[in-house]
Amino acid sequence: MYIVECKNITKTYQQGNVAVQAVRGISLLITKGSFVALAGPSGSGKTTILNIIGGLDSPDAGEVILDGNYLSKMNQSELANLRLHKVGFVFQAYNLIPVLSALENVEYVMLLQGVDTIERQDRAKAILDDVGLEGKYSRRPAELSGGQQQRVAVARALVSNPSIVLADEPTANLDSGTGLALLKIMKEMNEKRNVTFLFSTHDHMVMDHARRLIQIRDGQVADDQGEENTDAS
Amino acid sequence: MYFKLAWRNIWRAPRRTAVILIAVIIGVWSMAFLGALMRGISDQMVRNGIATLTGHIQIHHKGYRSDPVIENNMAKPSVIEKVMRDVLPADALWTSRVRVNAVASNARHSSGLTLVGIHPLSEARISFIGEAISQGRYLKPNDVLGIVIGKVLAEDFETELGKKLVLMSQDKDQEIASRAFRIVGIFTAEMEATEKRFAFVTISAAQEMLGLNKEISEISIKLSSYKEANTVAYGLRSALWSSDYEIHTWQELLPLVTAVLGMYDGFIFLWFLVVFIAMGFGIVNTTLMAVFERMREFGLLKALGMKPWWIVRQVLTESFFLLVIGIIIGNGIGLWTVSALSSNGIDLSSLAKGMEFVGMSHIIYPAFYAKDMITANLVVFVLGLLVSLYPAIKAARFTPLQAMTHT
What we know:
Chain A is an alpha/beta fold. Chain A has helices at about 45-55, 75-85, 100-115, 115-130, 145-160, 175-195, 205-210, and strands at about 1-15, 20-30, 35-40, 60-65, 70, 85-90, 165-170, 195-200, 210-215, 220-225. In chain A, strands 6-7-8-3-9-10 form a 6-stranded mixed beta sheet, sandwiched between helices. A 4-stranded antiparallel beta sheet of chain A has the order 2-1-4-5.
């Protein structure tokens, strides 16, 4: 069963007077529970593809079906709802709310979902324990290392039990040891919770751990080795 | 958690928050204080005006107000008294007077003034004179030769208690009537003009001097509240159907005071508006700065699934905290300032002459009006939230990607 279906999507940005074609007719099928990396150099269109799949951006042409939902048929409010319940995001810059503690950052998504306080706290603590942040619930982002902050971001992405986690260069700002530890956590979550992970990356370590590697060049799929081809773990 | 987040957000830039809080506090304080000051002034103007022989309602013979001569008297006060007993509220007080222009003279000076013949007992409960005696004594009902004059008049005439004062006026037969009175009391009043203008004798003495029988010049009525004046006056006009009489409320009797009161209302409104506009710009500016600084954060929240309305709510919650804190402190300081000044008042003696012109006292006692306070607070609170809507909506309208790439 496919969690993501991209059918011939294109996207062009206007940069001043120049039209930049970021995505040129990409079609992808991502199966549920997979651990996929979109790899390619900067400007190849990886992040644009992730944004389109996550409903943050819309394609000029083509169709994206996310967990059975046709994104082109959804308005902004419906897309926000879809992101809230079906998609978890992990961004390159850790993107936590600085005035909230680790626990509150994780809780916040559930607050938006309307989960009651006790359940929110229980689930947030459990997921923080899972990513190795037990005992650091009350630390604010500024009191956490980069790797710990990114773990909070992963916990926040997973706590709402999404269908897919979209991670945009999650290890780009981390040293290799910390990046590897984070990657292992995400892989563990993928296996334990059967949550689909789709990364954009140009980090070889991430590519090595992905079970499927899709190479993107100039907004097109340059190479797709399919499921289980590149698992080096 | 919304409140916790909003509360922490407003303290992310403590200096900026302090600046906007100070703006709100000064705004609310100035609204509270200046409102109380204006109300204090206008209250005193009304009180002075009403106490200086005006009352809340007056009844005269038709034409007396435009031509206060002795011929325009009310020959049958008993008819009016009967109507008043039927129409006036039980707690209403009233008194009748003879009031004519006269010339006072002694061996050295002479001056024009208003001779007021009063019922000493009922007059004392209605006008200022009952509590205004500073030397000597007040009139007794059977005083036939006693007169009470103001302190300034006594000084001008270089006279004192026990001395004679001759009063001259036109009597009922249009002849010159004069009578010598002995000064039994000297009164002081809020305004010098009052001390110069009025001389009080008993009504029977005035009637005797002017050749009047039971005729009187005016009836003055004091109600439990000045707000009842229009209603009661309407009732009196309906009951006293005769066209021989005119009934006026204090607003009609004190047109200058009424005009100044209207002007003060306008001034208070304008002040509220000016303060709010200045404060409103501060709030919009600060909130916009706070919103733009956190644009990436709003983008993140929208990416996570936060709906635009929730962002509006979050920004408004932060403004709510700022406004509530500012309003509480502003009101507190305002109340403290007013209560500190209300015991001794603000002495404006140096401006006394100009102030007397509009019936103001030398010392202003600020007075809190709940209505003004509620209006000021509502203006700040509601309009403050309304102007915060602009930055809030601006934040909410960015798409997640626009917001996250905002620099």
